[in-house]
Amino acid sequence: MGVQDVTSAQAQGTITNPKQIGPYYSGASGIAVNSIVDVQVLKVLYWVAPGTLLQKGNGATLMCSYTKVSGAQACQNQE
After folding, report:
1. Does the residue 19 lie in any domain?
2. What pLDDT, in 10s, does the model give residues 6-65?
3. C-alpha angle 47-51-56 in degrees, rounded to nearest 5
4. 8 domain residue, yes or no
């Protein structure tokens, strides 16, 4: 999903949800996974695209996963 997709959909009244921000595991035991990832890697590989969709496309929501990222649940990670 790109910036134009987000802005076009939301202009029609649809709330967009660009998927996962950060690392995630799609298997059945995803809640037990702890992805140890350097903060710089998170910023460069995982946060650029979603950040752009939020800032330039005014994306309404983002989805995070049950996976832990460097010891903290993804949705609660302060990084």
Report:
1. yes
2. 889 989 998 888 776 777 777 666 677 888 888 898 888 888 888 888 888 887 887 777
3. 155
4. yes
